[in-house]
Amino acid sequence: MRRRARLVCLGAIAAAVVGLTTTRPISAQRIRIAYSATQSNNQHKLFGRQARLYLTYTRPVGGTPQVHVDVATPTGRWRPLGQVSRGTGPSTLSTIVVDRSGTVHLAWTQFDGPTGRVYYSRYKTAWTDPVALSSAAAYAGYPSLDADSRGHLHLVWYGIRQPSTGQPTPHGGIYEIYYLRYDRGWGRPEWISPGVPDAINPALSVDVNDRVHVVWYQSDGRAYQIMYTMRNPAGAWTTPEALTSGTEPSTKPALAVDSRGTIHVVWEQKGGIYYLRGRPGQWAAARRISATGTEPTVGLWVRGVFAVWTDRESVVLRVFDGAWRPTRTLGPGEYPNAGPWRPDSDPTPRVAWTMGGRVHATDLGRLLR
């Protein structure tokens, strides 16, 4: 039986779910933009640095969703860093990281007309003008962002590769995972997924040795599987490997990497939540940690890891400290996002989620003792 947890609440921020409809330029297919404030689980929504907690979310402005960032001071008081997106179309699906200098970096999906593109901005004393990082010719979205110890940025997203050289798809192209690096300037996007069939929703994390780890889900022709690749600072990407198999779809992965370099991955499969840990080529057996649930996320704490997901319109927590503890219900809501996902940020375990028309951020420290 799930127990309702007692929470230490950091604060609640007004937000809302907005539904719009737009059209992709490649075909007559119509898509629905209907994102909760803290969607999606492949992204990082909160980051602790220098005794401050930064949180990004989507909130409508004049009926159009826009991307925002707020910051909590050491006293726990929230203040806005402002609206970051500036387009007239919907902006959603933001991902945040704060580097060692204290600079805040943000990437998101913005619809300039019918096409979704990945945009970027940073904040030191004010937000820079947003810069489009993906092409205007084809859809790109669901970015995931991190920074290494030298201040280099690492960004992935999924987008349509054109022209299609593989089998036909409903959207007229092939969804690939794209990677982009910032070192004194943005480089050129490169795709890191192996092509047909579609590759979707990448999650990225940089470890203490500046290795870049990426997971996503991709069909093997029978079912979606969780894929993984890694890149050393001066090396090439490893050949993507499947972390799952079988005919049951495995989707919506998220990951964290601890101080020992162990990779922790959660995903949705068979209507429930699965967990896997290991290193490239040395993976433990996957474990089902919940028979039901969706949108899982994973964070680090001093004695292990914790996973949070949505289950029947509630946010549910499960903790690992050598063994998995029973699940606990944190409260009503959806689309939780856990932190930290890396060991060199503020180690305080936290989670944020959408609850009704607000974003709820909670310190889990007391709960995990």
| Percent helix range | under 10%
Given as residue ranges, the uncertain stretches (5+ residues, pLDDT < 50) are 1-10, 14-31
How many distinct domains? 1
* CATH top level assignment: Mainly Beta
Instruction: For the record, give the distance between the C-alpha atoms at the N and C termini, rounded to a whole number.
Output: 20 Å
List the total number of helices: 0
Indicate the CATH topology. Neuraminidase
Number of beta-strand segments: 32
Strand order of the largest sheet: 1-29-28-27-26
Can you describe this structure?
- By secondary structure, this protein is mainly β.
- The chain is 0% helix and 56% strand.
- It has one domain (3-363): Neuraminidase.
- The chain is globular.
- Residues 1-10 and 14-31 have low confidence and may be disordered.
Features of this protein?
369 residues; five-stranded mixed beta sheet; five-stranded antiparallel beta sheet; globular; disordered N terminus
Describe the structure in brief.
By secondary structure, the protein is an all-beta fold. The chain is built from no helices and 32 strands.
Q: Topology of this protein?
A:
Layout: E1 3-4, E2 8-14, E3 18-23, E4 30-35, E5 46-49, E6 52-61, E7 64-72, E8 78-83, E9 91-98, E10 104-112, E11 115-123, E12 131-132, E13 140-147, E14 153-161, E15 174-182, E16 190-191, E17 199-206, E18 212-219, E19 224-231, E20 241-242, E21 250-257, E22 263-269, E23 272-279, E24 282-283, E25 287-290, E26 294-301, E27 304-311, E28 314-320, E29 328-332, E30 334-339, E31 350-355, E32 358-363
Parallel strand pairs: 1-29
Antiparallel strand pairs: 2-32, 3-4, 5-6, 6-7, 7-8, 9-10, 10-11, 11-12, 13-14, 14-15, 15-16, 17-18, 18-19, 19-20, 21-22, 22-23, 23-24, 23-25, 26-27, 27-28, 28-29, 30-31, 31-32
